[in-house]
Amino acid sequence: VAAYIIFGVAMHLIDKDIEWFTTMRHRFLAKKRAQNYSLFISSIPESLRSDEALQQYFRSFTGEDVVIDGDVALDIPKLDKKVARRDALVAKLEHAINISTIKGETPMHKTKM
Questions:
Q1: Could you read off the pLDDT of 38-91 as tens digits, one per residue?
Q2: Among 21, 72, 19, 30, which residue's Cα sits nearest to residue 50?
Q3: pLDDT tops 60 at residue 113
Q4: CA nearest 94: which of 38, 50, 35?
Q5: Quick one: pLDDT band at residue 21, thresholds 50, 70, 90?
Q6: How far apart are CA 19 and CA 77, in angstroms?
Q7: How far apart are CA 91 and CA 31, in angstroms?
Q8: What percent of the chain clears pLDDT 70, i.e. is strictly above it?
């Protein structure tokens, strides 16, 4: 009998955890952030290595109004550096927003002089 009770409690807790995760995931994905609406695709065939060809490929199975833009970046070392820098800044910004939300303080930083 105890095993059934423990199993029932465990299933209830798992169900509540899944509900929480689903709610938080939907809330996150509903935010208008580029990463929520962007795809990164590697190993693109030669025939699709133009912006227009890539857009047409995706529009052929998703519909005309779903694909807004398609850009092919073939040589991107500068972009990689900028993305790494942006990712580091996003983490710092999200940390500052969390501090502001939790403590009610606006974090300050000093610029180099």
A1: 777 878 888 888 888 888 888 888 877 777 778 887 777 888 888 889 988 888
A2: 72
A3: no
A4: 35
A5: very high
A6: 41
A7: 16
A8: 94
Whether 70 and 58 have beta carbons less than 8 Å apart is answered as yes
DSSP string computed for the chain: -HHHHHHHHHHHHHHHHHHHHHHHHHHHHTS--GGGS-----S--GGG-SHHHHHHHHHHHH-TTT-------SS-HHHHHHHHHHHHHHHHHHHHHHHHHHH------PPP-
Nearest alpha carbon to residue 34 among 62, 76, 63, 71: 71
So what's the pLDDT on residue 111?
67
Q: What are the b/e assignments for 59-95, b being 16+ CB within 10 Å?
A: eeeeeeeebeebeeeeeeeeeeeeeeeeeeeeeeeee
